[in-house]
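## Example record

The block below lists the input lines for one assembly entry, exactly as stored, with component labels intact.
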Amino acid sequence: MTIDQIQNEIISEFDMFNDWTEKYEYIIDLGKSLPVINDAFKTSDNTIKGCQSKVWLYAEYINNKLIFTADSDAIITKGIVAILIRVFSNQSPKDIVDAKTDFIEKIGLKQHLSQTRANGLSSMIKQIKLYAVGYLNK
Amino acid sequence: MKNTTGFNIASIREDFPILRSKVNGKQLVYFDNAATTQTPKVVIDAIVSYYSTLNANIHRGVHSLSQKATEAYEGARKKIQKHLNAKNSSEIIFTSGSTHSINLVANGFIDLLKSGDEIIVSYLEHHSNIVPWQMLCEKTDAIMKVIPMNQDGELIFSEYEKLLSNKTRVVFVNHVSNALGTINPVKEIISKAHEFGAAVLIDGAQALPHFEVDVKDLDVDFYVGSAHKFYGPTGVGILYGKEKWLNKLPPYQGGGEMIDEVTFEKTTYAKLPNKFEAGTPNISGVIASGIAIDYINNIGLKTILKYENALLKYATEKLLEIDGIKIYGNTDNKTSVISFNLGNIHHYDIGSIIDNEGIAVRTGHHCAQPIMDYYKIPGTIRLSLSFYNTKEEIDSLISAIILAKKMLS
Ligand SMILES: Cc1ncc(COP(=O)(O)O)c(C=O)c1O
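Predicted structure tokens for the full assembly:
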């Protein structure tokens, strides 16, 4: 699937929820199923700054695609990272660089995320895009 | 809530317009009072009234408006002086906050310290009472020693006594820990330091909102606080300094107001307090801070403390009924602050869930990373109560935490 298709799929999933608790329960479940990063890659180089909880993000370049793995010590953050990985992992660097990110507002996450968390979310997206930029010309 | 403490909680809450607001569609429950307290209408009105009727620069004009503004500003200084029981109003300096006050003092000591001198900090400090002194050490090669803490979140006094020596120049400790609520034995800390001729700065940011402080009785050399933590506006800080110490310290900033005479060859500085108040100060904020002091004195700090202690007891008992709650800072001598975690759940997850229920708490390290390192935790959830909070609000918090626990485990 393309990044756009995945984003639309996520938007329609989130449309089904009636209130914030259902939404959060779903995010928490996603957090539990996140493809966890190999402990060896939980280094300070792979730490994302700007999140109140710890977030590690690691990228591998395989068959012209970027594969992301990640972890966080907070489960809601983990769920949000899982959503980002579902959108951006296994895509080409160019598609990742070009991707829009307004799906986050569309799934109504931004309004429920505190300012500090929202900043953390932007840091995660920024880091994902930075990885992609790094592989653009390879 | 039953009115057992001699004031009417319903009418107190009426004084704070923000308490009527909704957050995420829910009634706001504000439990982040150690970060900043809400502002009563009389204080807001004082700011509006200043700009509507009094706005003029102080200490400068001969015109009537300027003189009136100056009187109001200096009137606020007298109120603070009286409130802290300082000897002279010239010992009260207005700054932009506790952080500014501490930097002013730490910077002044650059000229007074030499390599090998020692300064003593406590484990329980807010970063703003650590970093300025570290910068001082870098500039002077002075050495910083740390008073250790115990599991209950108290300073170990016997260890403090061991750190003191005739090399000790300054001791700086908070009156109340913002992260745990511990009330430190500052009077004893000060008198011990004085035996060695060291100056003492007490960071009272978390004390002034809760109980009476008497700088003469404490015999403290410097005492700092922030108006926005005692129901005043942001951007106003207080520095009390004994006259002899304020005279010893060099000015912090140069500019207008702080001078006596200026020529290109040499400037002589103004007397206290103007020596430390360069430039146009936060006039409206200072006047409004005086009104905030009137406001809390009207209710009475003894009444406030009694009510807050009752809330603290109620909240502590209710929280401990939840399986897995661990409270950090278990001293008997604390203000209405509860720092806690729930099982292995990350503090941030709990904070996010209860925010959706309209409840404002602080999560994280509370600018006191050494304390978190001591307990080997990334942070806590901090509940900090004010006299406008109620038992019903604590009940809402408890329900929200139970919901969070259900969702997160
Ligand atoms: C104990 C303590 N000291 C200093 C400060 C800094 O105060 P301000 O940010 O108003 O300068 C705080 C604020 O959180 C505090 O709690």
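Chain A touches chain B at residues 20-21, 24-25, 28, 52-54, 73-77, 112-114, 117 (CB under 8 Å). Chain A has one domain: 3-135.
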